[in-house]
Amino acid sequence: MSRTSVALEDEEKQRCPAGASPPHFTPDTSHSLPERLNLEPPVSAVETSPSPSSNGTGLLSLPWEIVTQIASHLPAQNLTNSPTQVCQTLGKLGEDRLALQLRAQKLSGPAASFPVGPKEDFDWSKACLEMEQLIGCWTGHENQAERQEEAAGGVNSENLVDMQLDVDLNGAAEAGEENVQVQSQNASDSPHLIASSSTSSPLEHIILPSGHIADVNCVLLLGGEEALCVSGSRDRNVNLWDLREGPRGKLMHTLTGCGSISTHRGWVWCLASSGPLLASGSFDSTIRLWDLEAGGAERRLIQCKAAVLCLSCERDTVLAGSHDQKLSIFDTRAADPLVKSLHLHGDAVLCLAADDQYILSGSKDRTVALFDRRAGKLLQKVKLSSYLLSLSYSGREVWAGDNRGLAHTFSMHNSSLTPVSQFTVHRSLVTGVHYSPGALYTCSSDRTIKASLLSVKKSLGDLYPSLSAAHISYWMQVHLPSSPPNTLFTLHHPSQLSIEGGTLAIASGDMNVEVWRHRCEESESI
């Protein structure tokens, strides 16, 4: 007999009266033994991780491995927000770097590498949240994209005509006035509100009421989710839209300066904003600044020496890339706004991306330059085999689109720009890129004519072949930013795009602006 049994039997004899037989003893391992004896736990308990909570019988009483496995099935949004309000222990799972990495790898797929750039200081929580939102919003639209492609008549490669134009930028104002082919299609000929592929889709697709009489070149979302939209067109005007008015938005007004009948005297080619400041750049070699807090009143006119092809705004500073190979820095508060004119490239500056420390610029000379704003010097120039038309970066990862349909990735580390990889995402010009840790949007022109060729004097030609065609195939794709990119959705039409607060606005390659936004109860009944 074991010492434990002897000790228990002697104790019971002392508690029973003399001559009485002790009751039959059956050890109760779940209650009696732990109260009286300090026994060693079984081997299986030693091999299992301790529970987050040793009290109770709820979720937190389970081994940590099981809690982690359960949490892996929760959406990232719930894991990040809801549990932290209920339980700090579960909230720690939303900060677990390894758990987030495993979640991101599962979302991007076993054959993909994520992220493409440096993993150091990468925002895994934001990436997982954006990836799950992107998948939930866009994976239900494949059938609609196929129907749009069929409605477009398909593209027979044997019948395609490659375009090459020569726009004379010095005469761009006249080209904008005299040679722009205005489409005769009336706004009432097509529906303004288009239902998504399924009424249960989280997104609704709307077309803003007609406000331009020529192709829209650029679009910009402002003021957070579903607030304001700005569009710039070859009709030389900039329109300001309120997306909160009515089921399909409302045209507030067309921005015009004092004594002017249009926003610019040439095609409006680019837009940028910072807070209440809105900047528009044009082929008429000017930048116009507008005050959104004053209802779009004109703040000032900045005269440049060549067509303005790209813009970026940071507080009271405006950066402009132009056809004369220069990158200009302007202070909007100064009487003489030009702060510095940088000659970083040997050809037209086509795209910009900037923050408070660095400026990235891409040029027709097939280089991308990295400029340090604080030190005031050029840090690096990277030579490419193609030229970039669009740039976007977040954190240490840079994505860019070129003239051959490729998406290039670079890493930013220790004031150095390092090419990482490149992927074929389109057939030709990647005219727009938007990158964030968990999302990648690209849009492109395939450089092919479907119906007619617009005759223009001289044009940008080899820079932007799409300028000449009234009917060119444009495409937008939504990807997970992995290596290679995981394409979720392809949309026919867009030539430019803007993303803000979960809302997507696109210039659809004609006079229209289209918006994809989260569906609300009111829109579902329409």
TrEMBL record:
Annotated spans, Disordered: 1-57
Highest taxon in the source lineage: Eukaryota
Keywords: Repeat, WD repeat
Keyword check for Repeat: yes
Keyword Phosphoprotein assigned: no
Family matches, as InterPro entries: WD40_repeat_CS (IPR019775), WD40_rpt (IPR001680)
PROSITE patterns assigned to the protein according to its UniProt record, in alphabetical order: WD_REPEATS_1, WD_REPEATS_2, WD_REPEATS_REGION
Polar residues biased stretches: 46-57
A Pfam family the protein falls into: WD40
The WD repeat ranges on this chain: 209-246, 261-300
Protein name (database record): F-box/WD repeat-containing protein 9-like
Species, as recorded: Cyprinus carpio (Common carp)
Protein encoded by which gene: LOC109059531
